Model the fold of this input.
Amino acid sequence: MPRPLLLSLLAAAAALLAAVSLTLGPAHLPVVRVLAVLAGGGDRVARIIVLDLRLPRAILGLAVGAMLGGAGAALQGYLRNPLAEPSVLGASPAAALGAVIALYFGFAAAVPLLLPAFAIAGAVAALVPLLLLAGSNESPLGLILAGVAVSAAAGAGIALALNLAPNPFAVAEITTWLMGSLADRSFADVAIALPCVAAGLGLLLWDARALDALSLGEDGARALGVNLRAVRVRLLAGVAIGVGGAVAVAGAIGFVGLIVPHLVRPLTDRSPSAVLWPSALGGAALLVAADIGVRLIATDTELRLGVVTAFLGVPVFLYYLRRERALWS
Done:
């Protein structure tokens, strides 16, 4: 499919889904009332519902989904591993641990910017050893196992925080946040996430052509003049900043970065640079669609977004794990 057409279709799908999300919720709002609010009018109740509750949720769905989709595509291109994505490699769980530490000790309540800062630090702590392994030409299986180990360590830290939480309300708050959700978010959360996502995606897109060169192997990339150390640092910073900011406001949402690149790759020339933008737009569309789904499924309490994306992503992960196992023998 021609690249401009693909990007246009994905952008239109994301925008349409975001518009639909503004009409959905416990209080049904017809399209006419939503449009009136967006045009600067509308009644007071509709303005509160749309501008204070649903618009931040839609914006965050687009931003977080774009970051997770772009990060998955970049990591798959850099590591030349179809199973690479932030949650599988431990970046998202480690970012969640950093955010839980900020919440548990009250740092986030004292200084809100410390929440994304701790999440970013957690993601960096997870990705540094993995990228060092990649630089040593470690096998895909080794990287996945290292990611599992990082995720297990992050999970143990989170479990410890839950076990030592001072009261049951703190446990409930941390547990609910860990399942991932965009509900009850405000423009304060948007102000935290958007700069992180913009910086993260910018750093990933900076090295799109270098990722193409890496498809020839590290020696081939060096022969083409690619500074692998600089690429690695920018990739680390981009994934850590973007995923850390996304996790800080949305909680642990996994597998978006695994699903989307595999869906869009057949529609491109399959080079890493050609997959980056479509994956970001596709991730935005997928996460907003999943967020619409959690509101449409009839349950006593609203499903958590991280649960839905896990159900979507685990079969995809198992499929590619099975397909790639021949390479690990």
In short: The domain at 3-328 is CATH 1.10.3470.10 (ABC transporter involved in vitamin B12 uptake, BtuC). The two ends are 35 Å apart (CA to CA). The chain has a mean pLDDT of 83. The first helix runs from residue 3 to 21.
